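request received
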Amino acid sequence: MKFKAFLTENGVMLLERRFLPALDKLGKTCHLLLTKERVIFLHNLLNGDGIQCIAQFQKEVLFDDYRISSQNEDCIAFAVDLSLLQRAVRSSVSICSEFGAGGSPSNRLQIKLVKKLPPKCTQPMPYLTFETKGYKAAVIQDVPISKPLPRAQVLELRAALELAQELPPTLVQVPDLNQIQNYVDRMRHLGEMLNVSISKYGDLHLQISTALVSLGAEFRKLLVIGEKAQAPPEDENLSAETRHQRAIMRQDGQSVHVSVKHFAKSLQCNLTKPDCAFYGIAPEGASLTVIFQFFVPGTHQTDKSIGLHCRLPVLDPGTN
Amino acid sequence: MSSSAVEPEAADLVCQLENVQGMVDSLSAVRWKRHQDAVVELSEHGIVLILEESNCLQAKVYLRKELFAQYDYNAEERPRFGVSLGLFVDCLSTFTVPGRATAIEIRYPGPDMQLLLKSLDSSDACIYAEIRTIIPDTVSWDYNFEPAGSVPLSFTVKSAALKEAIDDLEWPGSSIRINLKPAPPSVSFRGEGHGDLQIDLMYNANSDLLLDFNCNRPVSHRYKYKFLRATTSNLPSSVMKENRGSKLTIGRGGMLKVQHLVPVGRAPFPNPHVIDSASHQQQPGRIAYIEFFVKPEEEEDDARND
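response:
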C-alpha cells in the first residue's frame, strides 16, 4: 500500500483556505478515500446518523505526480482528524511561502503515507506525512491517521458513496446562500426541528414551529433542475404554508423535517465559497440533499472536477 | 404573500416599519433577563410595550405611530396582549440583515390572536413569524410618577458614561445611593457593600458629561443595584454610538425615572414595497422612547428627603 503525491498551489489554496475549515465544522474526523482518479473526504458515511458530507476532487485539482497503489484496486481509505490536517497544511504553507510565489518545484509540499514507530511504542503506526523544504528550514509533519480500512470496509464506503450520489428528482437553486445562512443563524435558537418543503414550481419553504411561535421563510421562483411544474395561479395569494400543503397534495411538492442543528451545519459549507447551491428531497423523503456548485473561475460553467454535497437525515416529527 | 389568510379589515392594527433594526434595538434595551413577559398596548398613537419586575421596576418602550411608514389602527378599544419579550425580539432579529435595512409588516391579531410579522423586501423571498400572545396580567402597571416639587430634580448624562458608571458600581453591589446637590451642582452614585465606591459627576458649563442639571435642594435615595443595572444593561450600540444623553429624574417618594432615546433609522433608500404616508415624510425625529421607573429602597429616615 503506497501513496505519494505533491500538493499543487491551487490544491493548497483549496484545502487550506476553503475546504478544510468547512469540513472541520461538519465534524472533527472524516474518512479520506484515495482512488486512482479522485480524492474524497467523507463524513458519516459508514457510521452514525449525523449529517453526511462528501467533498470530492479530481486528483489533478489537488495534486501532481500522484502515485497510489494498493491490493484493493488501488484504493486507500482511512480516518483523519481534520483540525490536525488543517494545521499541517497551514504550517507547511508558511514554510513554502518563505520563497514567495516563485518557489522552485523541488520545494513543493509532498504528502505520503508512512508507518512509523511512535515514541514509547512497540507497534508502528500509520501517518500522513507532510514534507516541506523551505529556504532556511525543512519541516516534516506527521499527521496520525487510523489504520487503513480493510477491504470490506472500503467496499462498504464506496457502495455508500455510490448511493449518496443519487440525485433527488427535483432540485431548486438557491442563488444567495449568505441570505439563508444569516436567517438560519438567527432562527436556530427558536426551535430544534426545521420543516423543509420543496416544490416543482421552484419554491423552497423553511419553517420552525413550536407551541409559542411559528417562523418561516419562503423563497419563490427559484431555478428548478429535474422535475418541474407550472405553479397554479390560484395559489398565488395563499399563505406560504397553505401553498406548500397544496403542492404536496398535488404531488408537486415534498416536505421533510430535519434538525435545525444539521441544517445550520450544512450551511458551513459556504466557507468553501461555492457559486450556488441546490436543495432537493430524496424519493420517499429519505433525506434532504444540498449540492454545492462551483464554477470554473471566470466563467459560469460548472467545474466538474470539484464536488461537494451534504445529505441531512430526516426526523420523525411525531417523536419530538 | 402572508403567512395566514387574514382579511385586512379584521386586524386591529396593520403597520409597516422601514427598518426592523430600530425596533430590535429599542426592545432589546429593556431585555434585562432571559425570560420576561411584556404587555403590549396598541392605540391610535402608537405601540407601547410594558415590563415589570418585583413591583420595583417598570420599563416602557414607546413606538409612536410616526416611526412607521404605514400605521392603520382600526380598534375601538385599545387592544392589550401579553407576549414573551425574548421570543418577540428573537423573531424580529431573524428579519435583520447585516448592513441592510429590512422592512416589515406587523399585524394584530392573527386568526388565533397571534402577532404576525412578515418581511416586505421582495415578493420572491418572504420571511414571516406568528407569535402566540397571552392574556396580560391584570396587575396595575401604573407607577404614578409625580414630580417631587415645583422644580424638577433631574439631570441628563451621556448614555455611555451612565452605563459605564453603573457597570463600575457592580463591584460594591447591593444598594446604590444617588445624591443630587445644588451647590456645587453635582450628582454622585455611591455603592456601599463589599467596599465603597463613589462616582461623582460634576456639572459645569464646560463639561459635556452632564448635559443638563436641575436641582434646588439636596436629595438622596437608595436603589437596588440590580434594578439600576437593568436600566442600562442592554443599551443598544446605536444609543452608545449617538451618545445623546439619558435623562434621570427623581420624583415624589424617590421614584427614579430613566429615559433613553433609541434611534429608529429609516431605510437609506425608499423601499418600493412600503407605502410611504405623508406624515411619515414630514417626521424629523425618528426616536423610540424608553422609560424605566425604579422604586427606591425604604429609608430608615424618610423625612430627610421629602
